[in-house]
Amino acid sequence: MERKVEILGYVKGNGLKGTNLNPIQLIELAGRTCYKSYKRITDDSAGKFTETVLRTGHESVIEHSWLSLLITVSPENLLAILLDNNLFQVSQLNGQDNFLLSGNVRMFRDYFRKKNEIFKDRVIKSILFEMLIKNKIWAILFEDLTNLGHLVENYHSSSKTAFTIDFAPKEEIFKNNTDLQLKHWWVCVRFRGCSRAFTHQLVRHRLTAVSQESQRYCDESGFFDDDYFVIPTTVCDRRLIGWYEEKLREIDRWYKELQKLLRNAKEQNTKETNKAKVNEDARFLLPNAVCSEIVISCSLEEWRHIFKMRCAIHAQWEIRGAMIDLLVQFQKLFPGLFDNFVIAEDGESATLLV
Ligand SMILES: Cc1cc2nc3c(=O)[nH]c(=O)nc-3n(C[C@H](O)[C@H](O)[C@H](O)COP(=O)(O)OP(=O)(O)OC[C@H]3O[C@@H](n4cnc5c(N)ncnc54)[C@H](O)[C@@H]3O)c2cc1C
Question: Pocket residues for ligand 1 (CB within 6 Å)?
Answer without folding.
Answer: 204-207, 305, 309-310, 314-315
